[in-house]
Design a protein that fits this description.
The complex is a heterodimer of chains A (502) and B (614). By secondary structure, chain A is mainly α. Chain A has 21 helices and two strands. The longest helix of chain A has 32 residues. The two termini of chain A are 21 Å apart. Chain B has 614 residues and is mostly helical. Among the domains of chain B are: 307 residues, no CATH class; 43 residues. Chain B contains 24 helices and four strands. Chain B has a two-stranded antiparallel ribbon. In chain B, strands 3-4 form a two-stranded parallel ribbon. In chain B, strand 1 and strand 2 form a beta hairpin. The N and C termini of chain B lie far apart (60 Å). Classes of the chains: A mainly alpha (502), B mainly alpha (614). Chains A and B meet through helix 7, helix 9, helix 10, helix 12 and helix 17 of A and helix 6, helix 7, helix 23 and helix 24 of B.
Chain lengths: 502, 614
């Protein structure tokens, strides 16, 4: 198949899978499992194919016109370095989480419903990452969000329902403001195609319209990516969802919907002004510090990890907010690392819970004796997230800190360092209370997680160990292509429009 | 390049291999790691003779060339020692893997020229230390957590310091960098990097992990990392900063001197009152770093050379002390001074090594510790020639600290090796009596019960080195190791003829012995310990630690001691309290009520509007 025709498959495959699983999953045994694995595996293969194809395409840009309609009248799907980057992360984490949930979701009753919702969520995220149309972005965003509201409530306990309710309300408020902003933009530019919109905006400036829309977007996507003070839904939602869902939410969803859209809209459409960058950096630093402190004072394992996600999103957006190529490189690299290590952390928390170790750190003790594999993997992920060399997180944090200093933001650099110490302390607390210590009497019959779960965790842990190699010049293209897209800023429009007209 | 890279790669691969050996094949892991450690030692010696080398990212100059074989040397001794001392631990393969990695990565840290490689290796060492302390088991994990947070936290500040350095100069290779401290930026850059060195070496106020690690971690780990390797590396980094990377001004030098003096006095005062000998040694490991920093802080060649020499000496005698202590603990299963005593006849080799190392650390001629302290004093006097009053206080602190060191080691030696044997006390609580009885069973029945050769060979080697480096100081260490570092050389104010002096000392001792033998030594009077005229009762036992309680109860000092033991001066504990307080406040704000959260969101949006639309 020609490379360009693979592009719609990123939406079609998961959407079709969701449909089929909900239709047949109830009747055919193991259908849901097989369909889910095949889906995620084929998505992973597709993203590899497209990545290779993108490398050999001049301009590193692929455009698929839906139904053959010429944009800006029709909708187009665009894959550039940044979309490819996000797409690959979604597929990678999606695959491992799917494999993990094959075993993990056994303890819930309705696996086929789970995989239906899961595929829908993947579909929404993939769509948001590859679309070139702003309204289409909103639609995919809503698909993914609504699927995630349902997934958070999957356990249907009162805690899950409450968390899901809060998440749904706050998510809808955010969606509402995003929608409003898109409507304003549409009214102002009379187009919904991102590239076209950017071009129109570039010669229709000179009033306070763009900052106004900017604030609406910043609030909406800030809430989706859980920046403080828009973060309050995250700890509840991420800690009460089933572990694979938490892994997906913390690892991918907040980045695909929040960070990616934020970058795309602000850098490529509206144009990143200094005011926006300063606001973003300020909020990020607040997130780093407060997220770090809050995660340190948690006793619920998953809630601790969820708060640490807020801090790590702060790092990503701090790097983005610097606006320098180095900062953006560090930020995107940290995005990649964080999706791997945070999903891994949530998966380990899931295996502890699965094995009967409980959720509260005060109830756990000496788990490393019963679950040596999980303990080792968790140690690796903790080290990576705290930025201990030579694990992957160290390098991305290093780049972000260096970029801060390079741009002269010494204070922000110090805050980033303090945040990293706070993260380390929080995960040291996990190590101390959960894994070391004397084994409790009730914990004697805890067994190691099944092999499917260990398989996923092992691969993700491997990446945490050797992730620093991503900086080698021969594989760096994966990140630096994405950085190129961000750095080019609003000239994105002319590139896309030129490619469309060909 | 190859000669530098090879040992590092070998250590990583060998470490992975050892890590993969199941704990069942204990002998295989032990023997393999012993040979790897030996190989690394030999490779270190090769690097020493091949240097100076410059291979781009890696380089060896006169400063790092003697650090490398030093790392290999201690690594080998510790591996040898661990064969026996770790015999009670189960997860041997990961232990030896961590040890081998530590050796390799330390070598990498010492030879790296590139800032990034340096930071990676330096940070990984912190992780390895954490893993090694955890070997002890559940009781050690509070300490390992604290240690790791202090070390990794200071490393994080070091990253900022290095990035500032990079911003000022634009170079990533240390050999390209040489800047004066003339602006705020360069000053902070220096001090932030120095924080990393301070935490590693254990300078106040980043020292609190050392005594606690010493009391909890396996003794081979303590002797390896906090006692010798971390000193080598920490002071190496400080030296590198002072000699090559920065040109310090008087103010920075003075700060170093003040930090050094405070560290000497405060830590040795804490050491004085300890009852656990491992903790006591740990405080001395902090106190001695003060001398090194003080020596470097004098800023003149003789003082800096003295600091460097003291680093080398300290690594030797402190490693020896910890390992000797480990021998005692291995045999008696206790580290409490109160429960020990009279071991000199039972463990003569350990007694000998402890006395030698204790004399060295207290600065008694002709041992090596005296020589380096003597150089540091000279550096201070030299520093005083340029005026100022600070050097007087520093000199006083250094000398007074030396005296207190001797005092606390007299206590240690008395309590462990001299004095009455343990188990004579009947006024103890019953459970204690049982333990004492067990101790007596272990040590009391036989007249000689030395540890096996794997454990005494390392300590004897180190003790001999203490003597050799002291007596032949000019001929060996200064000529080959220390001298080349200070390219221009250094002048002694007062020359200490170590060889002649030793001969005289020895002659004096021999004459004393002859007089003793010629006299009617058979009528030597043996009497009870003098305890202020009180009669010594049968069930009374003096371990020696009680004599030092006076210090603890002395007015203002008593107050300070009480605060210090409660962690009042512990930076880590104070920051922890603050952060947890803040965390409690933020948690109070997160009350779980949806409208509150929505209000935050709207308030946040309003703030953004105000910011953007003004």
């Amino acid at each position: 198949m020609a490379g360009i025709n693979i592009i719609p498959l990123f939406v079609v495959i998961p959407l079709g899978a969701a449909f089929l699983i909900s239709l047949f999953g109830k009747f055919i045994r193991r259908f849901a499992d097989i369909a889910a694995v095949v889906t995620s595996l084929s998505l992973l293969v597709c993203s590899f194919r497209v990545m290779m194809f993108l490398q050999n395409t001049p301009g590193k840009l692929l455009i698929y016109k839906i139904g053959g309609w010429q944009p800006p009248f029709g909708i187009c799907l665009v894959i550039d370095g940044l979309s490819m980057f996000i797409l690959f992360i979604i597929s990678l984490i999606g695959f491992f989480v799917t494999v993990y949930s094959l075993a993990y979701m056994e303890k819930y009753t309705d696996k086929s419903k789970f995989f239906t919702l899961f595929s829908l969520m993947i579909c929404g995220m993939n769509g948001a990452a590859i679309t070139g149309d702003l309204f289409n972005l909103f639609v995919f965003l809503e698909i993914a969000s609504i699927a995630s509201y349902a997934l958070v409530a999957f356990g249907t306990g009162h805690e899950e329902l409450e968390a899901s309710f809060k998440y749904a309300i706050m998510g809808s408020v955010a969606s509402c403001f995003i929608f409003m902003a898109i409507a304003f933009l549409y009214g102002f530019t009379s187009t919904l195609n991102m590239a076209d919109m950017a071009r129109t905006l570039s010669y229709k400036q000179g009033n306070s319209f763009v900052p106004f829309v900017g604030v609406l977007f910043l609030m909406g996507f800030g809430l989706k990516s859980a920046l403080i003070p828009f973060h309050a839904w995250l700890p509840d939602a991420h800690s009460s969802a089933p572990a694979p869902v938490s892994a997906m939410l913390s690892g991918v969803l907040i980045k695909a919907l929040g960070v990616y859209s934020l970058i795309r809209i602000f850098f490529n459409i509206l144009g990143a002004t200094q005011g926006f960058l300063s606001a973003l950096m300020f909020l990020s630093v607040v997130s780093i510090i407060i997220g770090g402190i809050l995660s340190l004072s948690q006793w619920n394992l998953k809630r601790l990890m969820a708060y640490s996600s807020i801090g790590q999103i702060g790092y990503i957006l701090l790097g983005i907010g610097l606006g320098t190529p180095l900062g953006i490189f560090g930020a995107l690299f940290h995005l990649l690392n964080h999706s791997v290590m945070k999903s891994l952390l949530f998966l380990t928390a899931g295996s502890i819970d699965y094995a009967g170790g409980g959720k509260d750190l005060r109830d756990m003790s000496g788990i490393s004796k019963s679950m040596p594999f999980t303990a080792k993997v968790n140690l690796i992920a903790s080290m990576a997230v705290s930025g201990i060399p030579p694990f992957s997180g160290f390098f991305s944090k290093l780049i972000i800190i260096v970029a801060c200093i390079q741009k002269g933001y010494l204070g922000y650099g110090v805050c980033a360092v303090v945040g990293s110490i706070l993260t380390l302390s929080a995960f040291m607390k996990v190590q101390k209370f959960a894994f070391f210590g004397e084994r409790k009497d009730g914990a004697k019959n805890i067994k190691e997680a099944p092999w499917l779960m260990r398989f996923s965790m092992a691969f993700l842990a491997l990446f945490c160990v050797i992730g620093g190699l991503m900086l080698l010049p021969s594989i760096r293209f994966f990140i630096s292509d994405a950085v190129q897209v961000v750095v080019k800023g609003t000239s994105y429009s002319s590139i896309i429009l030129e490619a469309i007209s060909k | 390049m190859k000669i530098l890279l090879e040992p590092i790669l070998v250590s990583i691969v060998a470490g992975l291999f050892i890590f993969a050996i199941p704990n069942k094949f204990r002998k295989l892991a032990e023997i393999f790691s012993l040979f790897t450690a030996l190989y690394l030692f030999v490779a270190g010696i090769k690097i020493f003779f091949a240097s100076p080398l410059n291979a781009g990212y890696l380089y060896v100059d006169n400063l790092s060339r003697f650090i490398v074989p030093g790392i290999g040397f201690f690594g080998f001794l510790i591996t040898l020692y661990s064969l026996k001392s770790m015999s009670g631990y189960k997860s041997v393969s990961s232990y030896y893997a961590y040890i081998i990695w530590t050796i390799g990565v330390s070598i990498l840290a010492a030879v790296s020229n590139n800032i990034i490689i340096f930071l990676v290796s330096w940070g990984f060492l912190g992780f390895l230390l954490y893993a090694l302390i955890n070997m002890k088991g559940p009781e050690a994990n509070a300490i390992s957590k604290k240690t790791f947070i202090i070390i990794a936290g200071s490393d994080a500040f070091m990253i900022i310091g290095f990035s500032m350095l990079w911003m000022i100069t634009g170079y990533l290779n240390l050999t390209d960098i040489k800047i004066p401290i003339d602006s705020n930026l360069s000053f902070w850059s220096f001090f932030l990097i120095a924080i990393g060195a301070f935490a590693k070496a254990g300078v106040m106020p980043f020292h609190t992990w050392i005594p606690e690690t010493a009391s909890q971690a396996p003794v081979s780990v303590t002797a390896f990392l906090p006692a010798s390797l971390d000193k080598l590396l920490g002071i190496y980094l400080l030296m590198r900063l002072v000699l090559n990377i920065f040109v310090l001004n008087t103010f920075s030098y003075s700060i170093l001197m003040v930090i050094g003096s405070i560290t000497i006095i405060a830590a040795v005062m804490m050491a004085l009152i300890q009852h656990d000998f491992k903790k006591l040694l740990g405080y001395h490991a902090v106190s001695q770093v003060g001398y090194m920093v003080l020596g470097i802080g004098t800023g003149n060649p003789i003082g800096i050379a003295g600091g460097l020499f003291h680093m080398l000496n300290h690594a030797i005698y402190k490693c020896c002390l910890f390992l000797s202590g480990g021998n005692v603990e291995y045999k008696t299963k206790t580290a409490e001074l109160d429960n020990l005593g009279g071991l000199s006849k039972i463990m003569p080799l350990t007694f000998f090594t402890t006395v030698v190392a204790a004399c060295a650390i207290s600065g008694i001629p002709p041992f090596n510790g005296f020589f380096s302290k003597w150089m540091i004093y000279q550096g201070l006097v030299e520093n005083g020639k340029s005026g100022g009053i600070l050097w007087v206080f520093c000199l006083a602190a250094a000398m007074f600290g030396s005296g207190l060191t001797l005092a606390s080691f007299i206590k240690l030696i008395h309590a462990i090796f001299l004095g009455q044997e343990a188990g004579h006390r009947s006024s103890l609580a019953p459970e204690c009596k049982i333990r004492c009885a067990r101790d007596r069973q272990v040590i009391g029945n036989r007249s000689r019960d030395e540890v096996s050769w794997q454990m005494w060979v390392p300590v004897i080697t180190l003790a001999i080195l203490c003597i050799v480096f002291g007596v032949f100081a000019y001929q060996i260490p200064l000529k080959f190791f220390i001298g080349p570092v200070l390219g221009a050389g250094f002048e002694f104010i007062g020359k200490w003829q170590s060889l002649k002096a030793t001969l005289f000392l020895f002659a004096g001792l021999v004459i004393g012995l002859i007089i003793y033998l010629l006299g009617n030594f058979k009528s030597v009077r043996v009497s009870d310990s003098y305890i202020g005229g009180e009669p010594l009762e049968k069930d009374m036992r003096l371990s020696g630690t009680e004599f030092y309680n006076t210090v603890k109860e002395y007015g203002v000092l008593g107050f300070i001691y009480k605060k210090a033991e409660a962690g009042f001066f512990d930076l880590y504990e104070q920051v922890k309290k603050m952060v947890l307080g803040l965390g409690g406040f933020f948690q109070y704000l997160h009350n779980g009520i949806l409208p509150t959260y929505l209000v935050w969101t709207l308030l946040g949006m309003m703030g953004l509007f105000l910011f953007f639309m003004r």
